[in-house]
Each structure stands twice: as structure tokens, then as C-alpha cells.
Amino acid sequence: MINGKKIVVVLPAYNAEQTIGKTYDEIPFEIVDEVVLVDDKSSDKTIEMANKIGIKHVIRHVENKGYGGNQKTCYNTALELGGDIVIMLHPDYQYTPKLIHSMAYLIANDVYHVVLGSRILGKGALNGGMPLIKYISNRGLTLIQNILMNQKLSEYHTGYRAFSREVLESVNFNQNSNNFVFDNQMLSQIFYAGYEIAEITCPTKYFKEASSINLKDSTVYALGVLGVSFRYFLNKLGIIRSEIYYNRQLN
Question: pTM, whole model, 2 decimals?
Fold first, then answer.
């Protein structure tokens, strides 16, 4: 805990057998109270490895629900466990758990309600091996998103995110897509609700075992991201009314 606030780290897993151990070993348990791993029907031994290393809360989806569907289970479970600060960390060891302290303290001290670990701030992305085409796409999409959403994030596409309980109870993330565009829908909901988002520089690693999406899925994702941003823009103008921005998570 920090300042009496319970910290829950959630790990949305898919075929993370080779990397979950390294990720788990670096989690700072002097402040982290609970760890939840949600396995989205992996074809490897992610579940067995999670149990072996001692993760207490391990959930396995009987059917693959997608990246967004995995996160929904993660956040709902974290709230059920009484989490005041919920940090999503990918178990593929692409992001370092050593930033959990910094992200959690910003929320625990009521500085921000949301903190992102950004690969784009500084030079961490390319130095960490991010493919040039992915870097360019990331920057291009982020520029368009910032214009349409009137924000100044360095990137919308990081998988390293920390949330206060207040935010998770305020935005209706359960209504979002079960696919990769979930991440951007959730950020748009957070901005629409009037919250500010902080970013800290995050080094990243790209290697064989790290998760990634193929060209087809990347294209679908990019189009989905643009769709989210345009719908946000039109909602702000009052031209359309999307349910994801107006229905609260809890009553």
C-alpha cells in the first residue's frame, strides 16, 4: 500500500510462458498488494507457470476474448479485490515493472488519476528495438488523435497503464470493444470524463518472445483508432451521442 491505498497489478496474458517469470520477479511487492493474471486461452503453459511462481489470483478464459476482453476481466477483478490503484503490466517483459513505484505514487498522492508509461518520450522506443515502421505509425496516429481530441499525449498505444479506482468506476470500460482498440476507447472515455493523464518515460524491449500483432491486425487497429478519435470529436461537438461516453460504470 501507499498512503493506505491498495495496489493491484493486473497481467493480461496470452502465451506468456517464457516471460511471465521475469516480469513477476521485478514487481515491487513492498508496495504491491495483489497480482492478478488473466490468461486469454493461451496455447502454451502460461497458467502452469503462473501457478508455479506463486501468483495468487489466476483466471483462465475458457474462450479467447481478445485483448480488450482480457482487460475487462483484469479491471473488474481488481475492483472486486478492493484495489484503489490498478496497474496494467504486460507479462511479456516488454515494459519494466520497475516503474510501478513512480506510477503508483503519482496516483496515491492525488497528483493524477491516470498515468501512462510512454515509450515515445525520450529515445527509448527506437533504442529498445521498436521497428521503424511501427514507430512512424505510432507517431502519426498520435498526432491525429491529439488534434481530434485536443490533447498532448506522446502516445496513445502503450500497454503500461495505471488507474485510480475512481476512474475505473467512472468510465464504462465494459462497454468497449474486446479487441485492441479497447485501449484507445478507454483513454477517450477518460478524457471525455474530464480527467488529465500523466506520462512518464518508459524504456521498452523488443525481442522474439515479446507479444506483437501482425500487419493485418495492425491495419484494423489503426482504422479503429481513427474511428474512436473521430467519434470523440463529433461527440464533443454534439453531432452524435455515443453510449460509451454517457453511461457510467457504476450507479
Answer: 0.91
45 residue type, one letter: K
Residue 75 sits in a domain of what CATH number? 3.90.550.10
Among 141, 133, 184, 130, smallest CA distance to 161 is for 184
User: Which structural domain range is residue 150 located in?
Assistant: 7-244
Q: How far is CA 212 from CA 72, 84, 93, 125, 197, in A?
A: 20, 30, 12, 14, 25
Which three cell numbers, joined as nine digits, stand for 123? Answer: 529515445
Q: DSSP assignment of 67-111, as one string?
A: HHHHHHHHHHHHHHTT-SEEEE--TTSSB-GGGHHHHHHHHHTTS
What are the 10-residue block averages of pLDDT along the chain, 251 residues in total? 96 96 96 98 96 96 96 98 98 94 97 94 70 83 95 94 97 95 96 96 70 70 94 96 79 39
Q: How many domains does the chain have?
A: 1
**In this structure, are strands 161-164 and 85-88 parallel, antiparallel, or unpaired?**
antiparallel
C-alpha cell at 61: 478464459
What per-residue string of b and e applies to 15-29 under the rule 16 or more CB within 10 Å gives b? bbbbbbbebbeebee
Tell me whether residue 250 is in a domain: no
